Amino acid sequence: MKIVLDFDDTIFNTHCLALESVKIFEKFGFTEKEFWSAYQKCKEQKGDFDLDILIDSAFNSKKCNYLREEDLLADQKKIKEEMNILFYRASDFIYSDFFEFVKNFNKKDLILLSFGTTDFQGMKIKNSGIIPYFQEIIITNKDKTENLKNILKNYGSEKIFFIDDNAEQIDKIKEKIPQIITMKMERLQGGQINKKSKLADYIVKDLNEVKNICKTGA
Ligand SMILES: [Mg+2]
User: Fold this and answer.
1) In Å, how far from its chain's centre is CA 144?
2) Where are the beta strands (DSSP E) in the chain?
3) From the first residue on, what is the mean pLDDT of each consecutive set of 10 residues in the chain (218 residues)?
4) Which region holds residue 29: left if phi is over 0, alpha if psi is between -120 and 50, else beta?
5) pLDDT value at position 51?
6) CA of 216 to the centre of ligand 1 (A)
């Protein structure tokens, strides 16, 4: 058996991290809307989160509030420090059921497959402290189907489970590699909860459900 887990919104509470990021920006006079609009600009420019771009685009609209350039630079530096401290404690945002979940399986059967296009994803995963629980950590900037085809090539004789909150990704995989057992994660705070999968074998709301399915289906 191999269990392939997604990171954001599957084992990591991305929503909570975003809320805390917003709180930091609010301390510097930004509204939640302004935070999300700067975040959107990161997505457009880098395809993913990038702290420098986030800070630059947020402060772009606030420049006229600063009489002196050095005050602007000082605030940018402070916000960057606070955000880095927040990212440093990424382990606070791992869903607690993850630690119970891993006790039930052999490390050699666990693979993390995460989407990310910037260094941020690797840093977040490293700071979250979950690396020692996995046999393999894969960060891809493409469709996960290719990675799963490779996993299937290496472990084709075993059952392969894939758990992700992204409905589109689940459906693509199920369409191309039907023998993979897919579970769509629907955490209450997950960003993709309203996007429904057409092909997922199971809809789950936490890792306890995942555990039960893997145990009985293995
Ligand atoms: Mg995800």
Assistant:
1) 14
2) 2-5, 110-115, 136-140, 160-164, 181-185, 202-204
3) 97 96 96 94 87 94 85 95 97 97 97 91 95 97 95 93 97 96 93 88 97 87
4) left
5) 93
6) 24
Distance 163 CA to ligand 1 centre (A): 9
Ligand 1 centroid from CA 23, angstroms: 23
Backbone angles phi, psi at 174, to 5 degrees: -65, -35
Ligand 1 centroid, distance to 27 Cα (angstroms): 28
Tokens, residue 45: 């420019």
Contact residues for 20 (Cβ-Cβ < 8 A; gap 6+): 86
What is the DSSP code (8-state) at residue 111?
E
Length of the chain: 218
The alpha carbon of 66 and the centre of ligand 1 are apart by a number of angstroms equal to 38
